[in-house]
Design goal:
The protein is built from one helix and ten strands, in the order H-E-E-E-E-E-E-E-E-E-E. By secondary structure, the chain is mainly β. It has one domain: Jelly Rolls, CATH 2.60.120.10. Strands 1-2-8-3-6 form a five-stranded antiparallel sheet. A three-stranded antiparallel sheet has the order 5-4-7, with no helix packed on it. Belongs to the cysteine dioxygenase family. It comes from Mycolicibacterium vaccae ATCC 25954. It holds the Pfam family CDO_I.
Length: 173
């Protein structure tokens, strides 16, 4: 997919993630997937597309791994869930609110959006055991990530920034 450089809006990023999700599901990026399969203990990610205006990433999510409460610096963002489920916990200005995102769902992140994203239980197998495979999602950032800030909610129910990290990828080191 070739994208012309323009000033992207959150709605544009939703369209981008949807198109790339279709391409991933169609096998166009199978060559970028780990040969041994997606890791089940650690999150995994790879860049699908990158320009000065836009980065697109394929990210896997596994149980017990949090991104922490964070923003995307000066970047807008969006995601499309390809398989599995995610829980997004976001700061709404007064409290933390959860929403569940399942395969096919999308979310956009305007400037100043502070959230945490984690793997969520998707289904229960026939024996009653929760399915624990990785969740896959496509994320787009415009402009590409350069910094992410991390936050905590204080005892006074306010948001406090703990640190800011320079980064060019959707995961901290």
């Amino acid at each position: 997919m070739i994208l012309a450089p323009t000033r992207l809006r959150p709605a544009d990023l939703l369209h981008v993630t949807d198109r790339f999700a279709d391409d991933v599901l169609g096998g166009d990026y199978d060559h970028l997937l780990p040969a041994a399969g997606l890791p089940t203990a650690e999150r995994w990610f790879t860049r699908l597309h990158g320009t000065d205006e836009l980065d697109v990433w394929l990210i896997s999510w596994v149980p017990h791994r949090s991104t922490e409460l964070h923003d995307h610096g000066g970047s807008l963002g969006a995601l499309t869930v390809i398989s599995g489920a995610l829980t997004e916990t976001r700061w709404d200005g007064e409290a933390l609110r959860d929403r569940r995102l399942v395969a096919g769902d999308q979310a956009a992140f305007p400037l100043g959006w502070v959230h945490d994203v984690v793997w969520a239980r998707d289904t229960v197998t026939g024996g009653g055991t929760p399915a624990a495979g990785p969740t896959l999602s496509v994320h787009a950032y415009s402009p590409p990530l350069t910094a992410m800030s991390y936050y905590e909610v204080t005892a006074q129910n306010t948001l406090r920034r703990n640190r800011t990290e320079l980064t060019d990828k959707p995961e901290s080191d």
